[in-house]
Amino acid sequence: MQADPNLYDHWPYRDRPKIVWPGGKKLAFWIAPNIEYYEFDPPKNPQRPGWPKPSPDVVGYSQRDWGNRVGHWRLMELLDKYGMRGSISLSVGLLDHHPEIIEACVARDWEFFSHGIYNTRFSYGMDEAQERAVIEDSIRSVEAATGQRIRGYLAPALTHTEKTFDLLAENDFWYTCDLFQDDQPQPVKTKTGKLISMPYSLEVNDVITYGALSMSPWRYADVLKRHFDQLLEEGDKSGTVMCIPLHAYLVSQPHRIRPFEDALRHIAGHDEVWITTAREIAQHYRDNYFDQTVADIAARGLATPGTGFDHAAA
User: Can you give the C-alpha Rg of the chain in angstroms?
Assistant: First the structure.
């Protein structure tokens, strides 16, 4: 195993070439509702159990089921109110389990990207052929159900192999949400293609804030506003990206939805913000800034040889 995965080059934040988003906007803002499906009794993975508690975990299963039967609808109505489209981090198996949610998202012109088949089936232990089959099935299945060619990927339960990023680039994916190294997009070092690391977030992800950090709803709203204000200020020098990753079984609870609306109202009230989808950010970046970034890293003498997990280049 290498000391560094070599998936991207170190690239200091200051004095980078300026990014300007469409319309002269300073901050590209997107929302990622994770529409997930958790199997009640998933196949056993020797590297990680499907549920934290021993089976049967009826509590964890039913809590997440609440998100698919109640929470998503409440969240969709709220985003409609502020003219915001979601970029859906989709457990592709949900196409079969809850087609009514998919139809509602298509009607709203929301984007879909792959979050694996189920959030209870992990990439750990997959060989290259198995992982390739999962990725190719995601492309075919989402396109058949929605008409969209997916361009983004978030690995199921954030689990990867050393082949994940090369397989995404090989299949003409434009962005991955699995790296957390920056507040701007950056090229990922793959053997083929033009894959970028899209700023997602663990810091303002409701799984972290409501789970690990046990924040109150109003505290979470305040964190979102301060996170936004800082990135907007820095976007004056070079365009930044903010994503709010969400899980309906958490953020859409009745006592949490109003504080979350307060944060959305704050964000929507700024004209310097490009409220968009991850695919549109990726396309703009690839068309205008991908090559510029590669050239700037090289000009600073920061480019390292090889690609991700390329042991021969270490």
Answer: 19
Q: Rounded CA gap, 245 and 242, in Å?
A: 10
The mean of the pLDDT values for the chain is 94
Identity at 184, one-letter amino acid code: Q
Rounded to an integer, what distance in angstroms lies between the CA atom of residue 276 and that of residue 31? 8
Torsion sign over Cα 191, 197, 201, 206: negative
Q: Is the separation of the CB atoms in 285 and 176 below 8 Å? A: no
- How distant, in Å, are the alpha carbons of 8, 52, 150, 306 from that of 170? 17, 34, 14, 16
Task: Assign 204 to helix, strand or coil.
Answer: coil
Which one has a higher pLDDT value, 158 or 227?
A: 227
- DSSP string computed for 85-121: -BEEEE-TTHHHH-HHHHHHHHHTT-EEEE--S-TTS
Q: Is residue 270 pLDDT above 70, yes or no?
A: yes
Domains and CATH numbers, the chain: 27-300 (3.20.20.370)
Contacts of 314 (CB under 8 A, 6+ apart): 2, 3, 6, 306
Query: How much is the pLDDT for 304?
Result: 93
For residue 312, is pLDDT > 80? no
